Amino acid sequence: MVEPPVQLDVLTIGRVGIDLYPFLDGVTLDRVDSFGRYLGGSSANVAVAAARLGHSAALITRTGSDPFARFVRDELVRLGVRADYVVDVPGKRTTIAFCEILPPDNFPLYYWRDSPSPELLIEPRELDLAAVEQAGVYWSTLSGISAEPARAAHYAAWRTRNRRPFTVLDLDYRPSFWASEQAAGLEGRRALEQVSVAVGNLQECQIVVGESEPEKAADALIAAGVELAVVKMGSAGVMARTRDQQAVAAPVRVEVVNGLGAGDAFGGALCHGLLTGMGLEEMLSFAGAAGALVAGRRECATAMPTLAEIEDLLGRQPGSRRWGGGDA
Predict the structure, then answer these.
(1) pLDDT per residue over 118-130, tens digit each?
(2) 96 strand-pairing partners
(3) CATH fold of the domain at 13-315
(4) Which of 98, 263, 303, 323 would disulfide-bridge 297, Cβ 3.0–4.6 Å?
(5) Predicted confidence (pLDDT) per residue in 25-43, tens digit
């Protein structure tokens, strides 16, 4: 039995695994003979990013029953994330993702995983609903509801949250998790009725709400009942919309090393902005800088930036401002 945790700032649910990144860039995997092993998975990365910024964080997930599972738990703890809710599934394998690093904008992922993968086997009865209810931010993903019983577990958690701030859905569309875009869109629209914050890029907004023009996508998310819609616009930056406010932040320019993990760094920094009461524009700039820093690094989880690093990058951007505080 898991003991009730202290109240968490950030609680995420969803994917965790091993990222194997080649030590040779600019070539396909058939030409690679050595890799680095890193903690990965979107929900894990968001939790690490939030912890790196000084917040108490935990992850609800499942792993295989193998040595990689031990690495996952140890690495989460080393990076400041509680692993109380990381549970082995007998007979399953911890997911591994191989990446090709082909800068500046091509980073294909190749998964080695069971079907369904372990995190999709989370049962409603296994949830610590008190921790879910009390968390400052509860972060879930579209891919997390791609199969049962995890879908039922997500809805059990959302019923407990009752759409309170800040109940976040990352639209995080991954084609390999779904039979079709239509199936993902249907589940995504149902899920929007349960959350107060939605985050997605233009492709994901098109799949879930049928709009890929930024303002129309934001309007559609707000019409679905969320209080805050965050729409990532690629090279045009990012937009945030509430019922009575809108803000847009330009992208922070860096030399891209590996684009994977940038969105998760953005997510962890968004959690920080929500928890600390940042205004929309400063929150978008802050989160965008976090994402840019990780895009300029090779790893994902272990590359998540500190507050001081984000402040330093923002201080070097023309017309930007800095936020007070020390290194988290």
Answers:
(1) 999 999 999 999 9
(2) 18, 112
(3) UDP-N-acetylmuramoyl-L-alanine:D-glutamate ligase (3.40.1190)
(4) 303
(5) 999 999 999 999 999 999 9
Q: What is the pLDDT at residue 97?
A: 94
Q: Where are the domains of the chain?
A: 13-315
Alpha helices by DSSP H, listed for 80-149, are 129-134
How far apart are the C-alpha atoms of 81 and 213, rounded to whole Å?
36
Q: Please state at what angle helix 307-315 crosses helix 280-295, rounded to 10 degrees.
A: 100
Please tell me the pTM assigned to this model: 0.93
- Neighbouring residues of 261: CB distance < 8 A, sequence distance ≥ 6: 40, 45, 294, 295, 299, 300, 301, 303, 304
Q: How many helices (H) and strands (E) does the chain have?
A: 10, 14
Distance, in Å, from the CA atom of 301 to the CA atom of 321, rounded to the nearest integer, reads 26
All residue ranges of the chain with pLDDT < 70 are: 1-6, 318-328
Mean pLDDT of the chain: 93
| H-type alpha helices, the chain | 42-52, 67-78, 129-134, 150-161, 181-192, 202-209, 214-223, 262-276, 280-295, 307-315
Backbone angles phi and psi of 99, in degrees to 5: -125, 140
User: Who contacts 316 (Cβ-Cβ below 8 Å, separation ≥6)?
Assistant: none
Q: Pairing between strand 17-22 and 35-40?
A: antiparallel
